[in-house]
Design brief:
Elements (H helix, E strand, L loop, with lengths): L1 E6 L4 H17 L3 E6 L2 H7 L6 E4 L2 E5 L5 H11 L2
Helix pairs in contact: 1-3
Length: about 80
């Protein structure tokens, strides 16, 4: 199972990234768990300095920007087991 973590405090872009992840996983028909991490200490521990941040299977792939859904799908494929 692929684990996707969206890091962010709840701003519009953070919510949008979470929604994009859910849509991408659904369209790709893969078994994935999309988690939203809003705890500031957890965000800081991850090393993300600007949100929204994105982690796929333990690897930070993006911080501070909103990728397109196609880019997101590419990252998921590239970082899946």
């Amino acid at each position: 199972m692929t684990t996707i973590k969206v890091y962010g405090s709840g701003c519009a872009n953070c919510k949008k990234l979470e929604q994009l992840c859910i849509e991408a996983v659904g369209e790709m028909k893969i078994d994935a768990n999309v988690e939203k991490v809003t705890d500031l200490m957890e965000i800081m521990k991850s090393g993300i300095m600007s949100t929204p941040g994105l982690e796929i299977n333990g690897k930070i792939v993006s911080a501070g920007k909103l990728p397109t859904k196609e880019t997101l799908k590419h990252w998921i494929t590239e970082n899946s087991n």
